[in-house]
Structure formats: C-alpha cells, structure tokens
Amino acid sequence: MATPALLVATRKGAFILRSDKARRSWKLSAPIMLGHIAHHLVQDPRNPKTILFSVRTGHLGPTLLISNDKGRRWKEASSPPAFPKVVEEGKKKHVLDHSFWLTPGHASEPEVWYAGSSPQGLFRSEDGGNSWAPVAGLNDHPEYSQWMGASENGTPDGPKLHSVIVDPRDAGHLYVAMSSGGVHESRDRGATWKPLVRGLSVVEGFPADQLYVHDPHCVRLCPSNPDRLYQQNHCGIYRLDRPGETWERIGMKMPKKIGDVGFPMVVHPRDDSVCWVFPMDGGTVWPRTAIDGKPAAYSTRNAGRSWQRLDRGLPTRDAWWTVKRQAMCGDARDPVGLYAGTTSGEIWASRDEGRNWRCIARHLPEIYALETAEL
Amino acid sequence: MRVTIPSPLLSYTGRREVQAEGQTLAAVLTDLDRQFPGIRFRMVDEQDHMRTHMRVFLDADELRGLESQLRPAATLHIVQALSGG
After folding, report:
1. Model pTM greater than 0.90?
2. I need a labelling partner for B67 at 20 to 30 A (CA). Which of A355, A370, B27, B82 fits?
3. Do the chains contact at A59 and B82, CB–CB below 8 Å?
C-alpha cells in the first residue's frame, strides 16, 4: 500500500520523507548522493516505481539518475540531456549547466519525459529517461537569442527553462516557461512554438514587447480544468483561461503591503478556482525573503477575486527564508496537503489546505525542490 | 596507459588507478567512457571543452586540449580542483 512521501532536492543532495496514510508523522531517509547538487526528483505517475533525479556536482558535469524501485537504487542515464556539439564558426556553443526541471510525458506515452535546462533548453526522452535528445523546435528556434537574451539576463543562479506542462488531453500540446524568455506554447509536440505573454507585466522601464525581459517564475495547469493556467511571475500573479491568450493579473487583489511577488505556484487537484502562492519581498533591492520576516502562504478560492492569508503555525517573526519556485507542492489527497521547503532547510506541511502548518523536517541543506510522491 | 582517478569520479571506476588506451587525450577519454559509461561527460562538456576545475597532467606536464599527444609509458593524472562551499 503506497503512502505519502516527499522527494526533496537540496543543494547538498536528495532526501526522501516518508509518512503514514494520515500524514501525521514523517521519517527522513539517509541522504542520497550526499554532496551533489540535487535539482529535481519526480515520481512517474504512469509507473510509480520509477523516479527521475536531476543532479550535478560542484565541478563535474550534469547528469540524470533513474530509480526503478522507488528510490532504493539508482542508475545513471546512458545519454543525459546535452546540447548538440557545434562545429560551425560563429554559432553559439551552448553548454548545459544542469537539468532544472523534469516533467513526465503524457499518459498515452509512458516512456516519454521532458527536461528543462539551464541555460534555457528543452529535452525529450522516449525511453524512460535513459537517453535524451534536444527539442530542436525550441532550442534551435531562429528567435532563440531574442527570447532568451544574453546569459546575464537570466536569474542569479543561471537562466532556466521550467514549468514544462503537457496537456492531459493532448500529448502534442505543451507549455514551457523561461526565466527569462516568457511563456511559450506548442501544439505539435515541440516542433513549433508561439509566445504566450500578452497581459504580463515586466520590470518598469523595460520593453514588454521583448520576450527576454519576461520572467515567469512558475506556471501550473489545473488538472481539473486543463484550459486554466495560473502563474507566479516576477511581476505579479496571473490566471489565463484558454482559448484566451491574455493573462489576467489576479495578484492585484492581494493586500498592498504584501504585494504579488513570489516564486512558487500550487494549484488544487480538483478545484480550478483554488491556488496557493508564497509571497516574498520584492521591494527595493528585492531581498526575496519572507515579508517582514513573517512567512505566510496565500490562497484564493475564487480564481483570484480575493485572497486569504494562511500563516497559522508558521514562524510569527524573525524568519528570513524563501520558498523557491520548485519548493512548494500539494498532494492529491482530501483535504489537500501542502508542503513548502525553505532556503534554510526546513519543510513545513499543512494537512488542511494551508489553514494549519507545522515543521516536519529541519536542518537540511538549502531546499531547491519538493515533489509529492506515493511510495 | 596508466590513468589516476580523482575521488569525485571513483563512483565510476571503483579504483584510483585504471588502464586506458589511446594516443591522444581525446582517445583515452573515449576509452575510459567505454569502460566506465558516463564518466567522460562529467569531465568534458558537449562542446569538447574540459570542465572548469578539471585538470589533466601527463606525468608532471599539464595538458591543454583534447588533441594533446600522449606517451604510452607516461601516467595520465586526472585532477579535480575543489573549491566552493
């Protein structure tokens, strides 16, 4: 019988937190690949024994590990994601720093996986993650350099492609987001792409018609309504209802003293009017910490018309941590369990959709990503 | 030829010293990857550049570039500089 678990990626390795069915007690595993930089661990919903693990080491190149026994043993992909070797003079020679984001493919394609990388690139595996090929329609797009800009336009720890989303109704319908580079959509399995940034704000003074200034932090599709997307952007919280193409800034309804800047976005598994964010300080020099040292999640239950603060159990003062874009997630249970991993190595959990929080792990390395699993 | 392996790559070889064949550094690294799949990409990026902080010495002489010629009687030392925190 599978029980709830969390796959924890940290700056110094990975961990697995296993719980009981009631999600009351949590037990931390020994470190996995201690000392290596863990970027993302994701369970395969089509084959729950399989977990993919993106990893890099301080001075070694990036690679990808696969477990087919729920994380007990790991083997290395035979051909991990990498950009093609460039021989033509004058052409940009991309070098993959790490695979930042992993997404299982469509249910009808059980061996397919996608990886988003730093610097921005999209890769696809058709053999369960063992070998990977670049998605040329994106990586070799003639406007690639205009979309991504120069490397200095990226985030401080490297520009990245993230939020790889496969439409559950259509294996060929994909979304990706890039920091920087904006949100893009493909309807032909990645062969061609169309920007999807109308309505999104950019930092004041920059030209909004240039994609390289767009910085979506995290985009999620509602499982209960694949025509609805929510986004936490560098410049606000948004909702998009397809086939519409204009994002609506629902973060304007957040309290003014909190604002609508943050990294993660979590959507409800069964209710498309509910999502959660974890705001951070985007004032002055952008500290990117909990606002006033008082961390809180915020939730809307009406698609963004109003927001509620959810901080019961969280530190009430002197907590200057951040929840990164991959480090907040929700499970599929009822009520939904929410989990937030912090830059200070704590994991906070709520069994009641954010109304009450408690710390279930501490003293871990900086947490980069959290994913729920059933192990 | 004799090749010494730094600790971050021992998970591939399982031992400090291995044997590999080749007249150039590129050929030896290819042979290492044949014996220990995946090890080359951890040392060399997709544009065939040694990764930052990876150094290779032929006896006491540092090699620059994958096309460096090797002497079979010499020892190839793969060295991993460690920095960061």
Report:
1. yes
2. B82
3. yes
